[in-house]
Amino acid sequence: MLSRLAESFYWIGRYLERAEATTRLLAEHHQLLVEDTRVPMVTGCKVLLDALTLEPGKDACDTPEKLVRAVLGSPHDPGTVPGSATAARENARAIRDALS
Length: 100
Known about the structure:
By secondary structure, the chain is mainly alpha-helical. 67% of the residues lie in helices and 0% in strands. The protein has helices spanning 3-35, 41-51, 64-72, 81-94. Helix 1 (3-35) packs antiparallel against helix 2 (41-51) and helix 1 (3-35) runs antiparallel to helix 3. The two termini are 15 Å apart. The model has no long low-confidence stretch (mean pLDDT 82).
């Protein structure tokens, strides 16, 4: 296998793992913020966004729904779920002849 193909397959896997891990982390953290009222919303939001290395918007920590929108975010940011899926797709497009 060519090193270019191997590298693309590696990054496809990494990007998809990141999308899955980000989704799981968001689901668990969102559930914690909704159920546990002892944790201030702003603190919990900032901890999650810091863990995902995302810049918090000025209103991203107002409600759990806005937090979800901030983490799901844009396909242009590889730290978000759509961004990771887009990056994996771009790697797959580069080696489409080797994929089944």
